[in-house]
Amino acid sequence: MNYKISLSRFLVGFILIANIKFFSVPGSYAILGSICNYYSKLLVCLAIALFFVAEHIIITKNKYTQVVIAFLLLIGATIIYTVINYPNQSFFLILKKYYYFGAVWFAVPLMSFLKRNNNLQWFFKFIALIGLIYSVYVILVKIVFNFTGVLLIDTNMQYIQMRGGSLRLARTSTFISVSTIIALSNYIKEFKNQKKFFSINFLSFVFGLISIFWVGMTRISELAVVVSGGIIIILSFKKYMKVLVSVFLVVCLPIIYQTIMDFYYSFYSKETVLGTEVRTEGYSYFLSHMFDGKIFGMGLVTSERYHSLLYGAEGRFILSDLGYIGYIGIFGICGIVFLLYLFRTVMKTIKKTYQNQLLPQYPEIIGYLLFFGISGISLAFTDAQRCLYLPIMIILYWIIDEIVLTDKNTIKRGITKQ
What we know:
Blueprint: H1 3-19, H2 28-32, H3 42-54, H4 63-85, H5 91-98, H6 107-113, H7 119-148, E1 161-163, E2 166-168, H8 173-194, H9 200-216, H10 219-236, H11 238-265, H12 273-287, H13 307-311, H14 323-355, H15 364-375, H16 389-404, H17 410-413
Antiparallel strand pairs: 1-2
Helix pairs in contact: 1-3, 1-7, 4-14, 4-16, 6-16, 7-8, 7-9, 8-9, 8-10, 8-15, 10-11, 10-15, 12-14, 14-15, 14-16
């Protein structure tokens, strides 16, 4: 392995691990908290810039680099609108708070990196591995806490909550849910092509599920993983699934019905009803601001002078909990246009996969769309903590569109070789 490959792999791994705050191990905040925490992504963005330089990128035109550029144009236009509309906010003040939008550039050097030297295989394995490590770690944290009351995790990096009398580490679901779905789709390929029953992908998927449902307890992440994972499994084994799913639905219908009802009522329990009401009010509030600037929403507000505008009169609304609605409240019609462009680009790749009769081999192309679509109901991809959501989504679809569909021979030396 030459120096460039080693450096690039190190930087990719560093970016992903820094984004999850180095697993929030005790002492991590004291060392790196000022530049790497749930809200600060300075270290992540710096590593992305170094990765960009290491890859010596000349941007090539394809539909997914155009998505990256379109997003940056949206951010640039919104910044200009904000500076004009809010005289107390300078360009530098806005940049200081919202610099993490630049993390979308991560997708561009990845396009160059993944085309070389079995990096595609390595990339998927690494995501599964850090997802496995993170899942096992937070599960052990909860087990130790249940027996001893001791928290073996940095409480400045994680938001410590109790739900139903049980420890909840909601922030861990942000990355683990993504790695769980990626691990599932790649495990199915291993199983179908190499008859592997146990692997890093399998363990990452299993422990990821345990972590999401037992430790993270974020209901939208749970729903997104179950629906997208179920679709991936069904489409992967389409020949056998019709009978199995029919039998399963008939036999387990009462259980399925009860699970759905429990999920619905979980939003209105004594512990969660207040949060549900606040979120519902927040949806209405931000929708009412989507036309503040005609084609923009309220813009990228930063100054404390506009605190009540960003958080509501009582300071109750949190953008990170409002998903697409909060996003629309900020970016308005321009934001909707970008979303339509993003999903239109993704649908073109899905159509291309279907026309090439590759949907059974790559069912994750539907699963990923469902995952990002559902999680976006309450988890905004424009928040600092999810600043890698968009570039990862872009790269997952670019892999299939540019590598698999353009050069089918890379299937053998790339994804399915895991």
